[in-house]
Design a protein that fits this description.
The complex is a heterodimer of chains A (about 525) and B (about 120). Chain A contains 13 helices and twelve strands. Chain A is of the alpha/beta class and about 525 residues long. Among the domains of chain A are: about 260 residues, Type I PLP-dependent aspartate aminotransferase-like (Major domain) (Aspartate Aminotransferase, domain 2, 3-Layer(aba) Sandwich); about 30 residues, no CATH class. In chain A, the strands form three sheets. In chain A, strands 1-7-6-5-4-2-3 form a seven-stranded mixed beta sheet, sandwiched between helices. Chain A has a three-stranded antiparallel beta sheet with strand order 10-12-11. In chain A, helix 8 links the parallel strand 4 and strand 5. The termini of chain A are close together. With about 120 residues, chain B is α+β, with helices and mostly antiparallel strands. Chain B has one domain: RNA polymerase II/Efflux pump adaptor protein, barrel-sandwich hybrid domain (OB fold (Dihydrolipoamide Acetyltransferase, E2P)), CATH 2.40.50.100. Helix content of chain B is about 20%, strand content about 35%. Chain B contains four helices and nine strands. The longest helix of chain B is centred in the last third of the chain and has 11 residues. Chain B is globular, with a radius of gyration of 13 Å. Classes of the chains: A alpha/beta (about 525), B alpha+beta (about 120). Chains A and B meet through helix 13 of A and loops of B.
Chain lengths: ~525, ~120
């Protein structure tokens, strides 16, 4: 194999081996040449906070720094490199038009403390985005400031708690189905509620009867992810809403998968009281290594008075920021984020919505679902799918087809790396054994999908033919071979130490390769 | 003679003189894969049968471990903090999670014995 060839330099072709920045250069070297600071009284003025010893910053020249980060970036694989079928928010294309608009000086150079009179355009932009988010979801209000999805969930649940306490009806439990996102039970627990899990049924959806049985007047909310983590639409969503409302509970929907239904389903019409939106997924703003999340929460009329500050209010064509509870009409839960939310993401999300238009947004969700179903249909003969299709925006497989091959879901994912694809989500959702969750998104062409499908089929056939050894050695062609994930989790090395401080354990412990001996 | 019983959620409990030692089964550790972290309850905590009492985290998943019986937690396996791999290596022995002083021994009657548990595993395929 190519992977076994050794070079004198340690580099592989033009893929350069890169040490840590602390292992390069020397403390005497610097990229800048500044004059010595003037010392008016013959010394510095640091007094007792004077540095006692060098702080050990790496010393590199400018070209060395540039190369270091460029080389690291070349070892990265992202949505800009190729298909990224991970069902997550890092896999969405970030249109370049968004970036151009976010860099306009009138938007990019604003300071959050500028007087409102000087930033009317920015406030109008937030107001317009809020308008479209409420229009698309069919709910009357939106809290724009949450910083990301899980933060949006927390804020949503805080408004629910505030609304219940306000009506003198504090409650104790939150019901979360197995098909919900893992952040949902965590959010409920963080908000002070006891979490009760509700099983799924054989169709991969919420078991409605078991949900009904678990409902009682001490349930504050039901949290459902729709489309759910199995990539399926919760067909009983209206019945779930009715059942929750009958006992006086609120219906929270995790809207992380709104990208599958935007422009087609209005959550407000389904009886949903509260839902967060991931602008960094549904509305294409960059995430992962590329930017912060943004998780506005849409709210029903009953919850709207409890929305956090700050928010934008319009009066006679002028916009102002309501920053304090005493200036608001309702009873805000308080402030949940510094300043006004992720403004740069608001610009990008609105740019996306305006450039796509209503028809474009509707087509994007349709294409996302079509692409996922294409993969489900093409792979179904070879791979095993736990639930009958059609699916929504992601296709789910389990590992039944690998039974008795000795090859695991993880092995297959590692082999995909050698084939030039980022692996899909593996071992999630937990309700499916050896899960493989493929989200192709709306932006991939049929040509790309066909290549991916052919690769997946080829790997599956190899596994079924009994080539277990091939998979155990994968990946061979990546910058690093298979990492010892267990050891990295059990004995993590979280910081670099200068060689003198490193006594028994070598620096590379966590990243040591299982397959190195085989090279 | 100690009595050993099993739950649907793949916990085991070994009871002797009203004191139960609790862990997860060999099947459970195999399904989880390499265990990397175990979160144990506080000693002295009262638990009710079916309450989440501990969390076991592997390279693949994080799962709750439920109290198989009601009672008071009187000891936890401190060795798991630095040696979570014990859960994989000795699930029924050195990889125990907690000891519970049972408040109602009749709860054991609702649980599976070894034979019934093995039969359940066979039915899972």
């Amino acid at each position: 194999m190519t992977g076994s060839m050794k070079t004198i330099s340690g580099h592989r072709g033009l893929m350069l081996e890169e040490p840590l920045i602390f292992e390069q250069g020397s403390p005497e070297k610097t990229a800048v040449d500044l004059p010595a600071p003037p010392s008016p009284s013959g010394g510095d003025r640091l007094g007792p906070v004077r540095r006692e010893r060098p702080i050990g910053l790496p010393g590199l020249s400018e070209p060395e720094v540039v190369r270091h980060y460029l080389r690291l970036s070349q070892q990265n694989y992202s949505i800009d490199s190729g298909l990224f079928p991970l069902g997550s928010c890092t896999m969405k294309h970030n249109p370049r038009l968004n970036e151009k608009l976010a860099r306009l000086p009138g938007l990019g150079d604003l300071h959050p403390l500028q007087p409102a009179s000087t930033v009317q355009g920015a406030l109008r932009l937030m107001h317009t985005l809020a308008h479209w988010l409420t229009t698309l979801t069919g709910l009357p209000a939106v809290a724009m400031s949450p910083a990301a999805g899980a933060h949006g969930e927390l804020v949503g649940l805080m408004t629910i708690r505030a609304a219940l306490e306000d009506r003198g009806d504090p409650r104790r439990r939150v019901l979360v189905p197995e098909s919900a996102h893992g952040t949902n039970p965590a959010t409920a627990a963080a908000c002070g509620y006891a979490v009760q899990s509700v099983p799924g049924d054989a169709r991969g959806r919420v078991d409605l009867e078991k949900l009904r049985a678990a409902l009682s007047p001490d349930v504050a909310a039901v949290m459902v992810t729709n489309p759910n983590t199995c990539g399926l639409f919760e067909n009983d969503v209206r019945l779930i809403a009715e059942a929750a409302h009958e006992v006086g509970a609120f219906f929270y929907c995790d809207g992380a998968n709104f990208n599958a239904i935007v422009g087609r389903v209005r959550p407000g019409d389904l009886g949903i009281d509260c839902m967060h939106l991931n602008l960094h997924k549904t509305f294409s703003t960059p995430h992962g290594g590329g930017g912060p999340g943004s998780g506005p929460v849409v709210l029903s009329a009953a919850l709207a008075p409890f929305a956090p500050v700050a928010f934008v209010a319009e009066e006679n064509g002028r916009f102002r920021l309501v920053e304090h509870g005493m200036h608001a009409d309702g009873k805000p839960v308080g402030r949940v984020k510094g300043f006004h939310g992720q403004f740069g993401m608001f610009v990008r999300a609105l740019a996306y919505m305006m450039s796509m238009g209503a028809d474009g947004l509707r087509q994007a969700s349709g294409d996302a679902v079509l692409n996922a179903n294409y993969i489900l249909a093409e792979l179904q003969g070879t791979f095993s799918a736990p639930f009958a299709g059609p699916c929504m925006h992601e296709a789910l497989f389990d590992d039944r087809f690998l039974k008795d091959t000795g090859v695991s879901t993880l092995d297959l994912a590692k082999a995909l790396i050698d084939e030039g694809f980022h692996p899909m989500t593996v071992y999630f959702p937990l309700v499916v054994h050896g899960a493989m969750l493929v989200e192709p998104t709306e932006t991939e062409s049929k040509r790309t999908l066909d290549r991916f499908i052919a690769t997946m089929k080829g790997l599956a056939e190899r596994a079924l033919a009994g080539d277990e050894a091939f998979f155990r050695e994968s990946p061979r062609l990546s910058p690093r071979r298979r990492l010892d994930e267990t050891r990295a989790a059990r004995k993590p090395v979280l910081r670099w130490r200068p060689p003198a401080e490193t006594a028994p354990e070598p620096m590379e412990t966590a990243g040591e390769e299982v397959g190195r001996a085989a090279e | 003679m100690p009595v050993i019983r099993f739950t649907q959620e793949h916990e085991w409990i070994r009871v002797e003189d009203g004191l139960g030692t609790v862990g997860i089964t060999d099947y459970a550790q195999q399904q989880l894969g390499d265990v990397v972290f175990v979160e144990l309850p506080a000693v002295g905590m009262a638990v009710a049968k079916g309450d989440p009492a501990a969390v076991v985290e592997s390279v693949k998943a994080a799962s709750e471990v439920y109290a198989p019986v009601s009672g008071e937690v009187i000891a936890v396996n401190e060795g798991l903090a630095d040696g979570p791999e014990l859960v994989n290596a000795e699930p029924l022995d050195g990889g125990w999670f907690m000891k519970i002083r049972l408040s109602d021994e009749s709860e054991l009657a609702e649980m599976m014995d070894e034979e019934a548990y093995q039969a359940m595993l066979r039915s899972l395929g």
